[in-house]
From TrEMBL:
Active site per UniProt: E333
Superkingdom of the source species: Bacteria
Family the UniProt entry places it in: Belongs to the glycosyl hydrolase 20 family.
Species this chain originates from: Polaribacter dokdonensis DSW-5
CDD domains associated with the record: GH20_chitobiase-like
Pfam families to which the protein is assigned, alphabetical: Glyco_hydro_20, Glyco_hydro_20b
Location of the Beta-hexosaminidase bacterial type N-terminal domain: 25-148
EC number: 3.2.1.52
Protein name: beta-N-acetylhexosaminidase
PANTHER family per the UniProt record, alphabetical: BETA-HEXOSAMINIDASE, BETA-N-ACETYLHEXOSAMINIDASE
GO molecular function, one term: beta-N-acetylhexosaminidase activity
Enzyme class, broadest EC rank: hydrolase
Amino acid sequence: MKKPLYIILFLILVLNFSVIKAQNIQIIPQPNSIIQGSNSFTINENTKIISSDKTVKLAEDLRDYFKSEFKLSLKNKATNKPLKNYIKFQTDNSLANEAYELTIEKNTITICAKNSAGWFYGSQTLMQLLSYNAHYSKYEKEIDIKEIKIIDKPRFKWRAFMLDEARYFKGKEQVKLLLNEMAYLKMNIFHWHLVDDQGWRIEIKKYPKLTEIGSKRKSTQIGPLQWESPIQSAESHEGFYTQDEIKEIVAYAKERNITIVPEIEMPGHSTAAIASYSWLGTSKKEIEVPIKFGVGKDVYDVTNPRVTQFLKDVLDEVMELFPSKVIHIGGDEVKYNHWKNSSSVKQYMSKKNLKTPADLQVYFTNSISKYLQSKGRRMMGWNEIMGHNLHEYQDKSDTKTSQKLAKESIVHFWKGDVELATTAAKNGYEIVNSLHSSTYLDYLYKNLPLSKSYAFNPIPKDLSNEYHDKVIGLGCQMWGEWIPTDGEMHYKVFPRIAAYAEVGWTNLEKKDFSDFKINLKNLQKRWSAKDIYFAPDDYVEKK
């Protein structure tokens, strides 16, 4: 009896492709579906890269990759005619945002996606396959790569790396280096912490003293005791980004499918701004940019219309520079004693029927949220913006609030009982989970080893399934107090950033720490070639 045609086709598929289980494809982050065949595709200088108007830049980047990595000069071609021996970008509107399908067959490679994000990630996967999972003959000038089909999309839509430059200014070349590695690892949010107590790093043309004064400090706390250290560098530190440099970096990130989310701290962590313009502070006293780390000497007087106008003016210039729909306003570690000691603040609170300092903070935060919404943007802040008590130095009675945070806000969870994250989700807020004990890159490896970074799950353990979609992703944070040199930053970021990339992208059932460590060897070779001074294997799991 003849078998039906669909059964024959199915048997051919099974015979030609096998799902990889024991054999690991050396890609970080690990794709979510991998099917491998038995034949190979040979790439040589006769191979064409087929592109359209939408994919011409991606095709150029791919061509540059072949030239730099393999000394192969491939030609780009715009055509709809069927060809052999080509690499093609193809549109499939049924795929999800950021999803892609990469198919390598005997004569063709197809990267299928809905939009530029998917095509970009498909290209990154192809590059990792070619670099680490293919055979290259420099004599024949050919690359042989096995047939494979990868169907892939991210687990979370927010996959962020944060760099704090308020404490130590790094400059655009280091930022570009980080953006390149983020893109290679399919991370899509660069959270840029540009202002804090110890420095203001972004040019605001309406308020030039912010960089004339606020971007400089005369010395810096250093030493092995870190937070308790009495040692000072006795050397000045300064630096800031001009608006032209910001535009350059934003464009650079966009080409790599990365959105830059700026963080402009308010109402706390504002000493550098108050040192520039004393009228911004609650005390109105002249102060200097701090030379010690920790929470600063004053906070914005958010009851003063002149101060709130200043903050709106700053945000206006920030929004001109950053197209991100999300603007981060910090909101963490506000020491309420500054407001409690001010008679004018007390009068304002009485007039507005605000019973506690937490009421005042949430009231102010909601006014900023409303302003950002009027500009088509959305506010994000650390989870103190909900009015919760997270710190021992706060009086519990000060953190009781009847104010409700604006529903459009994104809550950036970093501290407190994980139940607080659950509460936020149940109340309808979207959450980015950056629990400090699992994501803060300034922590020593003995406190945050690579295995703990890899094991982090942004969805809290006891969160009911109905609220899982409220957790939109994670961030890993490179706080800058103890990274005075680029090398010290590299040591803390790499290799942990690769672990967070896989946390953000790969489904739980596809993750395997043993495989990840094997795959990491390839990234270490890449980093060494780029003079990235990552932490060696002997240190990342130190107890």
